[in-house]
């Protein structure tokens, strides 16, 4: 049964922001520094943790705007900012006015929607765009076990869907090519391999990251009953193979920075 936006926002705040999202924002914080930007827009700001952290580091005269993905996330982010009196302007929709720098979290943007997403965020920037996302080489262990699970469940006719999930994840070169075609130049990237570990296959498939964010994005080609069966069998397949060893998968967290063409 799918969860409401309110329930997902709660899970995002409690689990996803502090593990998944922070892997990407730590990469950004360690690789990129703001300078003299007057207006900064943060797209997909989640529950506001990173935006609030950035606000503390920015020049006091810089304006920071932030747009969480939905109204429930915005409520949480606004409450956090109010509690610490952070000077951040939150929006429920894309602003009309352009800014110096657009910063965007694309870690949960579907690969098939990346081009449209980049088109939008690049159009909002006058000088610079910074974004982060998983790139090719991510989730390989999961997809390998998924393929085996579909095979064992006599659903081999859907093998091509697993291959699609793998090939859809963009390479760094493809992302840079797309960004260049959309108007960015002087592109720079930084990639770090992040490992996510779970004690068992069951712990993985029942985790909020997998159950509420990754699987709903990936398993759109099966119905709800099939999805429940596949996820249950996936946990068993992992545990049978690892025989007591913890399960982990790798994500290629990638940061891209580019300047807007004059």
Protein architecture, described:
The chain is of the alpha/beta class. The chain has a single domain, classed as Rossmann fold (3-Layer(aba) Sandwich), CATH 3.40.50.150. The chain is built from 10 helices and 7 strands. It has a 7-stranded mixed sheet with strand order 3-2-1-4-5-7-6, with helices on both faces.
Summarize this, please?
The protein has 262 residues and is of the alpha/beta class. The chain has helices spanning 5-31, 49-57, 71-83, 114-123, 140-152, 159-168, 172-181, 201-205, 208-218, 224-242, and strands at 39-43, 63-67, 89-90, 99-105, 125-135, 184-198, 247-260.
Strand order of the largest sheet: 3-2-1-4-5-7-6
Rg of Cα set: 19 Å
- The parts where pLDDT drops under 50 for at least 5 residues are none
Output the CATH homologous superfamily: Vaccinia Virus protein VP39
Q: Which key features would you list for this structure?
A:
alpha/beta, globular, 7 strands, Rossmann fold, 262 residues, 48% helix
What does the secondary structure layout of this molecule look like, with pairings?
Blueprint: H1 5-31, E1 39-43, H2 49-57, E2 63-67, H3 71-83, E3 89-90, E4 99-105, H4 114-123, E5 125-135, H5 140-152, H6 159-168, H7 172-181, E6 184-198, H8 201-205, H9 208-218, H10 224-242, E7 247-260
Helix pairs in contact: 1-3, 5-6, 5-10
